[in-house]
Structures are given as C-alpha cells and as structure tokens.
Amino acid sequence: MISSIARSGADLALLLLGGFRVLVDDATLELAERGYVDVRPVHDFAMRAIAAGADNASELGRRLSVSKQAAAKTVTVLEERGYVARGPDPLDARRKRLQVTALGFEVMQVGEAVFDELRDKWKRQIGAKQLERLESDLATLVGVSPVRCDTPGWIAHSLDEAT
Amino acid sequence: MISSIARSGADLALLLLGGFRVLVDDATLELAERGYVDVRPVHDFAMRAIAAGADNASELGRRLSVSKQAAAKTVTVLEERGYVARGPDPLDARRKRLQVTALGFEVMQVGEAVFDELRDKWKRQIGAKQLERLESDLATLVGVSPVRCDTPGWIAHSLDEAT
DNA sequence: TCATCTCGTCAACCTGGTTGTCTAAAGAGT
DNA sequence: ACTCTTTAGACAACCAGGTTGACGAGATGA
C-alpha cells in the first residue's frame, strides 16, 4: 500500500533544498554568533540590491520581484536595524532615497565571509574540482536565473531547530 | 562603493535554491496542466508521510517537524481536496485515523513521474554520470537530512511568475 | 480511582507576502 | 500653462502557513 517510496526526481529537489538550507542556516547562525543577530539572507539580498542601485522601495521591489509594498516592509526593518538609511530624494519629491549604511556594508562583508567559509568547508569535503563542477552544472541547469531572491518565509525565520 | 559583487559562497547557495525552485515550479506547473490543480510539494510530502504510517495529525506533525496544529491544517486542505480521508480510530477514540485516498495515490504517482521527467531533462543536459555525481556530492554535503520538508511559504504558492 | 499524558481543536498571533485604494508629485501632450 | 497619465509611497485588508497556549475528551499507568 505504501508503494515505492524511492523518488529520484523528487529526491533531487529535496537534496537541492537541503543544500541550500544547510548553507543558509549555518550562515545565519554564524552571523548571529558574530554579533549580527536577526540578519537573514533576505536582508543581505535586499541590501545588495540597494547598494547595486535600487535606491528606492519601488525599484527594490522590481529587482527582487516582489511588490513595492513588500519591499517597503523589508526596508522598514532594515532601517530599524540601522542597515539602511532613508532620506528625501532631491530630484524627486515622491521618492525616498535608500542608502546602505556603514553598518549595512559591514554586515554584507561579514556575511560574504561566512558564506565563503562555508563554501571552503564543502570544498574540503568533496574537493575543489568537484565543487566547481557542481557549481557549473547547477549554473547550466538553472540558467541565468534573475537572482530571484524572493524567498518568503522559512528562509527568514527557522534555524531555531538548529539541531 | 558597491565593492565586489562577486560572492562565490552565497552564489552557491543561490544556485542551490535556484535549482530547487526550477524543479518545484516546473513540477507544480506540470501537475496543474495534468489536471491536478493546487497541489504543491508540501501536500505530496504530507501524503507520503501519511502513506508511510503517520496516520494521525499529531504523528504527521512529528514526522514533518511541525506542530500538530500545523499538520492538522494541512490535513484539512488535503481532506477538502479529497486526497486523504479521515475517520475514527477504532482503537483510540481520541485519534482520527488518516488514510490516503485513491486520488491521493494518483497524485503522488503523477507527481513522482513529473519529477522523474524533470530529472531526465537534466540528465540530458549534463549527462547521466555527471548528474549522479552531483546527487552523491550533494548527499555527502547535506548529510542524512531528516527529509525536513517543512518548507513554509513560497514553496507553496508562487509559480505565478512562471516567466 | 486518580494523576498524567496525548489527541484534536479553537483562538490568538507572527511573518512575509498579496491586492486595492489613496495622495502627492512627476512627466507627456496639447 | 493645463490637463492626463504614470509613479512613489503609505495604509488597510487579506492570505498562507507557521507558532504558542489552552482545553475537553479519552487513554493509561500507579
């Protein structure tokens, strides 16, 4: 009645998800340990987009492929945490110009370092060559994904179960 | 000011996520086209757990690592869709015994097939050997992940942007 | 028999997203 | 210069999926 539980196709998906989770959860944890509590990948993505030129909420929404309202919410928390600053736009009174603060850049740098360390760990486990291969394969498979860092929910919280 | 945007470590994470998304979104889309609208991986995971013996909501929650309340909610929608049936447990009046219906098994089978087709597509793209390698590498890296299919949010909806 | 555990459910709440509506400001076309 | 249309940002209502806390009903062990 249970039939074959083996599902190579779906397992592959699960593997991918698992890999992502491991990386992200570890990174979030590590970041917290280094004093950047409550920073999640989403925030990093958003800051990066802002730094890369998305200097207002609507534009940020567009780049992140979420609604401007959702982007505004993110900006709000980023501002509360002191990672971005919001000021009037001298050229357009409708806009509020966004800027990543020094603290924001700091977090981005640390986050980068943490992720790189994690990647190094993986490199040690399966070998540099193999890891590069994995990355390039994935890249061909996924294609030029438009970053798509709209990752609602669980990316954000969870890691509580850091078993 | 933008500093180096290159982030191999984080990019790796994004790649993993991207792969997962591509797979899951495609599968959900395909499933919908085959007539199974509104079925999401989460549901598949849950049904599988039920079929595998999690025959009551609390147990399902345990297996899926979510609260029994959350599991109960999932069961509710599964029941509404006709994928699982709920009846009294003759041995324990507190319990409501869960059972995957014929339709439920059908969906699981189709889902399995869809995922396998997707995997085949990938196989054609990078070669069977390479794909197997990728899977085994991922498996070592991820470790024996306890399925962990608690994937709130976006896994569920989104695919609207099936660009 | 009584204390304790477990099941299902209800209710309140959180997060992160959505749409819709609204104002104010910018821009385009006449 | 004056409209018409678009856009930014804010607010509200809502949704999905998850959480905790409480509680009654039934199971269970001392």
Topology of helices and strands:
2 copies of one chain form a homodimer.
Chain A: H1 8-33, H2 41-51, H3 57-64, H4 68-80, E1 84-88, E2 96-100, H5 102-126, H6 128-142
Antiparallel strand pairs in A: 1-2
Chain A binds a DNA duplex (30 and 30 nucleotides) through helix 3 and helix 4.
Please provide a written account of the structure.
2 copies of one chain form a homodimer. With 163 residues, chain A is mainly alpha-helical. Chain A contains 6 helices and 2 strands, in the order ααααββαα. Chain A has helices spanning 8-33, 41-51, 57-64, 68-80, 102-126, 128-142, and strands at 84-88, 96-100. In chain A, strands 1-2 form a two-stranded antiparallel ribbon. In chain A, helix 1 packs across helix 5 (102-126), helix 3 (57-64) crosses helix 4 (68-80) and helix 5 (102-126) crosses helix 6. The longest helix of chain A is centred in the first third of the chain and has 26 residues, at 8-33. The two termini of chain A are 33 Å apart. Chains A and B meet through helix 1, helix 2, helix 5 and helix 6 of A and helix 1, helix 2, helix 5 and helix 6 of B.
